[in-house]
User: Which sequence fits this backbone?
């Protein structure tokens, strides 16, 4: 069945400079004082290295999967910052050993129109409008917040990427049934369709490509450098459809946590996630205190916490 899932590699990631580096002070100057003041500040600090931001660690680890014979991950910078920042940014890439050599710098203009031009699979940004437009254009996209207070364990070469299910990996169909008809109807529906695979959500295609990379690094003991997790408010019996969907897609996950109404942050910290994606802002805000987290704008009221599970 065609669900618009394509496994072609490399994975192309677009990341804003503010997602990759800590540029909050400079961005405040840009917003409050304008382009001229911002440009002057960047020129003044041109020789200063940029500090690591929210997306830095996951991008570093993903790029480390490449070798001389195989390019599995490609990264382009898509930045609303001025071209003056490009000198400082590329100097910082070189210092940190990040092989990033391409990008777009637009001096305040939206970068979403360039997501398609770059053929982006995953777009990480701090700009809500760019993220929403990238999603509308068919890319997986998430709005990142500040870096977490807790640092992940550096003594491993794993890349641990964790997702929510409905409205992220899977379509919003089941979420909308819950929203419109309530929990009882949702559970009846999921029991009835337990073996009917769900359609992909905004991150479905990205998962397909990520699973391909995971397979490339799979060892005989069943462990890969890519570790994929799912932390979802679903629990039994609604979890069965998740398992059957992942089987149908050929995208097994390494771990799944059916947390119901429990906060997700503790599970993500225990996993040591290098990034987590969820469509509910309250889950993202809680997770962002302990792991890098991205909000995938979806069908829910950002102030309403939706738990599609029996307690």
Assistant:
């Amino acid at each position: 069945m065609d669900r618009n899932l394509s496994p072609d590699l490399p994975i192309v990631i677009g990341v804003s400079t503010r997602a990759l580096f800590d540029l909050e002070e400079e961005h405040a100057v840009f917003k409050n004082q304008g382009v001229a003041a911002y440009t002057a500040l960047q020129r003044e600090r041109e020789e200063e290295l940029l500090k690591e931001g929210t997306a830095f660690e996951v991008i570093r680890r993903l790029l480390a999967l490449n070798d001389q014979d195989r390019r599995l991950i490609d990264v382009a910078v898509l930045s609303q910052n001025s071209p003056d920042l490009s000198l400082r940014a590329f100097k910082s890439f070189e210092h940190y050993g990040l092989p990033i050599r391409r990008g777009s710098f637009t001096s305040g203009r939206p970068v979403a129109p360039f997501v398609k031009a770059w053929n982006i699979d995953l777009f990480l940004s701090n700009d809500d409008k760019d993220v929403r437009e990238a999603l509308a254009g068919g890319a997986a996209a998430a709005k990142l917040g500040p870096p977490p207070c807790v640092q992940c364990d550096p003594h491993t070469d794993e890349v641990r990427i964790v997702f929510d299910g409905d409205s992220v990996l899977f379509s919003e169909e089941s979420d909308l049934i819950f929203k419109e008809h309530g929990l009882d109807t949702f559970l009846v529906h999921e029991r009835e369709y337990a073996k009917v695979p769900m359609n992909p959500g905004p991150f479905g295609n990205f998962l397909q490509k990520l699973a391909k990379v995971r397979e490339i690094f799979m060892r005989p003991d069943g462990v890969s450098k890519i570790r994929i997790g799912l932390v979802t408010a679903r629990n039994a019996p609604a979890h069965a459809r998740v398992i059957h969907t992942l089987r149908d897609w050929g995208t097994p996950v390494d771990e799944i946590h059916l947390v119901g109404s429990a906060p997700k942050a503790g599970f993500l910290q225990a996993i040591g996630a290098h990034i987590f994606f969820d469509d509910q802002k309250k889950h993202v805000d809680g997770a962002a205190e302990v792991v890098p987290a991205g909000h995938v704008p979806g069908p829910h009221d950002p102030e309403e916490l939706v738990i599609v599970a029996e307690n």
